[in-house]
Amino acid sequence: xKIFYGVQGTGNGHITRARVMAAELYAAGxxxxxxxxxxxxxxxxxxxxxxxxxTREGLTFNTSKGQVSYLKTALQASPIRFVKDIxxxxxxxxxxxxxxxxxxxxxxxxRQNKQVIGIGHQYAFGHAIPRKGxxxxxxxxxxLFAPANVGVGLHWHHFGQPILPPIIETPAFPEQVQANKIVxxxxxxxxxxxxxxxxxxxxxxxxxxxxxxxxxxYPHISFKPLSRDGFQRDLYDxxxxxxxxxxxxxSESLQMGKKILAKPLHAQMEQIxxxxxxxxxxxxxxxxxxxxxVIEDWLHNPHAVRVTYPNxxxxxxxxxxxGMPEMDNAFVENxxxxxxxxxVRHGEVVKPA
Length: 353
Description:
Blueprint: E1 2-8, H1 12-27, E2 31-37, E3 54-56, E4 62-64, E5 67-69, H2 70-76, H3 79-88, E6 96-100, H4 103-111, E7 116-120, H5 136-144, E8 150-153, E9 181-185, H6 191-198, E10 205-210, E11 221-225, H7 228-237, E12 240-243, H8 247-255, E13 259-262, H9 269-281, E14 285-286, H10 292-299, E15 303-308, H11 312-321, H12 329-336, E16 340-345, E17 348-352
Parallel strand pairs: 1-2, 1-6, 2-3, 6-7, 7-8, 9-10, 9-12, 10-11, 12-13, 13-14
Antiparallel strand pairs: 4-5, 15-16, 16-17
């Protein structure tokens, strides 16, 4: 069976999720064409798993100094190019069309009367989940950006709703953790401001991944270019992560038992809601500005949570192979029954939460 799979490429979280889905789809014998939009074609990296892929301009959100600007997003959009991309995409030869919040695929399928399966965190917002920072514009953007006929929403907890756990790789729990090693991923912030913020904490070792690497004169702070393999190596044995409130990275961190300090993008409803969910669940801490005192308190807090999630990608692939039966309560509960929440202290599991 043939699948056309569109992936929002603005941030790396959607691509990370797509890598896991790609492996399971190929293993199941599906013929998959991947499309990525939202960043220049030469800015994608570590894409070998997709066995060749196509890119289009698509739509993306303008961010500056940790805040989304809807005005600049609208001014910088290329509506004529977007419409041309939609009209040029022929989906007639595909059995399934999947969108991970990717608008060209979603709107092309709607134009051609093809059913769209939306797989991703954003589709969880169609249900009653923790929600903050919402306004009518944000709600409309979430609803219309990449609409789907069938939405498979993902979240860290079910909140009593028909949504599934995150799609992530399931690496082994690290045998040893470096208590002073912290991974930092704040790609939407001013990296000079990140450097100034971290420089006082000389007893900790910061590995900062950024789209634009800057020079650090501080031996305890190193800036590194974006790299999937390098990032995973550092994430594996670090004690915690400071990041924006993206869904996928927090999911990976929870799976590995890392403590989390999330700084959501201002005016970005999804990230503000993610931060609220982390706090509500007791899975992480948040800061809404670049706050040195919050960072200091968090650095000296040894508590973390480990959440072991099942292979959700395989669950979804089997669901597709079965013809997409209704994800009723029994189906969803069966998936969540294998989730386990554990307390972690100083990098070691201590007891069930």
